[in-house]
Amino acid sequence: PFQLLEIVRKEDVVLRAILTTHHHWDHARGNEELAKLCPGLRVYGADERIGALTHKVTHDQELTFGAIRVRCLFTPCHTSGHMCYFMWEDGSPDAPALFSGDTLFVGGCGKFFEGTAEQMYTNLTQILGALPKETKVFCGHEYTVRNLKFALKVEPENEIVKKKLAWAKQRDDEDLPTVPSTLQEEFLYNPFLRVTEEPLQKFTGKTDPVEVLRTLRTEKDNFKKPKERPHPQAMLAFDWGLFSPFLEKK
């Protein structure tokens, strides 16, 4: 939260509200501290488990912050109370933005911790996939390189996957973000949005889109990164239990 407040200070703005996608600590942990430091702060979300929640939102509810308009999009699966936020400004030349939390990633989707393949299929096709194609996708994590390595395993002949992976690796090496992408791009290389395509059906051995998605998620859950030598100091930190406060179970 203190890093965020430093950015707020540098930008010379006032923090009025927080839009929280879901309750997991790596997305909501700072809420309570921020609520203490910023009296009157509004915290929006769809799940009672979100820390310092003040305003519970529902699917298709619209919020307004100055010129910024927000549509709340309920996407249960990763958690049962996951909400994405679609934002735009009327009359602005800028593309709209989707803050997709852990539902949709660049090249991937979130794990089905509290939901089903049927729910994620609805999320990706009818809710998020139906947004304007120029929408910028701001997801909750930089998982792009690993996601695209899996996408390449699924579609080894997909030239767009190869190019995007090479680009993402370079960005990673330079410590630059791979986020945002656009929704239009995601349909070209994200296997979880390509479940009706022949190569995906061939890889999974399924034709029903929901079954393709279910199989893909299982394959992705079991997908191993190439083994890397662990950092010796990191291993010591694990041995000494220094990371244990950060390793709460989801």
TrEMBL record:
Q: Which cofactor does it need?
A: Zn(2+)
Q: Which GO terms describe its biological process?
A: methylglyoxal catabolic process to D-lactate via S-lactoyl-glutathione
Q: Which Pfam families match?
A: HAGH_C, Lactamase_B
* Highest taxon of the lineage: Eukaryota
Q: Metallo-beta-lactamase domain: from which residue to which, for each copy?
A: 2-141
Q: Which InterPro entries match?
A: Clx_II_MBL, HAGH_C, Hydroxyacylglutathione_Hdrlase, Metallo-B-lactamas, RibonucZ/Hydroxyglut_hydro
Tell me the keywords, alphabetical order: Hydrolase, Metal-binding, Zinc
GO function terms (MF aspect): hydroxyacylglutathione hydrolase activity; metal ion binding
Q: Which CDD domains match?
A: hydroxyacylglutathione_hydrolase_MBL-fold
- Give the protein family: Belongs to the metallo-beta-lactamase superfamily. Glyoxalase II family.
Q: What is this protein called?
A: HAGHL protein
Q: Which gene encodes it?
A: Haghl
